[in-house]
Amino acid sequence: MSKEFEFNGYDWSELAECWGIKVDDESLRGYRADERLAKMIVDYMYDNLENPQMIADLRRFIDALCYMGKKYNFPAYPIWKGLKETKNNLTLVNYVGDCLRRLWN
């Protein structure tokens, strides 16, 4: 995890990059690799729920999503805006985990 990582708010793979998560299975490509990576990100969030840096990174990621969502009027912007206001870390991770694959739908 890096305090210095700058999120752009484009894609959930930014979390993987920030946290050094990679799919090492060369046989996985496209959708299957994306699904594996998303699962690894969600697992990482739950495994590090008590880590204040992970929570700070996740909140900065959501801030970036909200900025881009508002700027480009993405349909899911209100959902991410609501998640941004969530104070409980477990609730935040639960809902981000559920919404991650449907980032801008």
In short:
With 105 residues, the protein is mainly α.
Describe this structure in words.
- By secondary structure, the chain is an all-alpha fold.
- It has one domain.
- 62% of the residues lie in helices and 0% in strands.
- The protein contains 5 helices and no strands.
- It has helices spanning 13-19, 30-47, 52-72, 77-84, 89-99.
- The radius of gyration is 13 Å and the shape is globular.
- The model has no long low-confidence stretch (mean pLDDT 89).
Task: Supply database-style keywords.
single chain; 105 residues; mainly alpha; 5 helices
- Proportion in helices: 55-70%
Query: Over the alpha carbons, how many angstroms does the gyration radius reach?
Result: 13 Å
Q: What is the mean predicted local confidence, pLDDT?
A: 89
The ordered H/E elements are: HHHHH
Task: Indicate the proportion of strand residues.
Answer: under 5%
Form type: globular
Contiguous helical run count = 5
How many strands, which pairing sense, and closed or not: the largest β-sheet? none
Q: How many strand units?
A: 0
Structural class: mainly alpha
Oligomer: single chain
Extract low-pLDDT stretches. Answer: none
**Count of distinct structural domains:** 1
How widely separated are the two ends? Answer: 27 Å
Reconstruct the topology from this structure.
Elements: H1 13-19, H2 30-47, H3 52-72, H4 77-84, H5 89-99
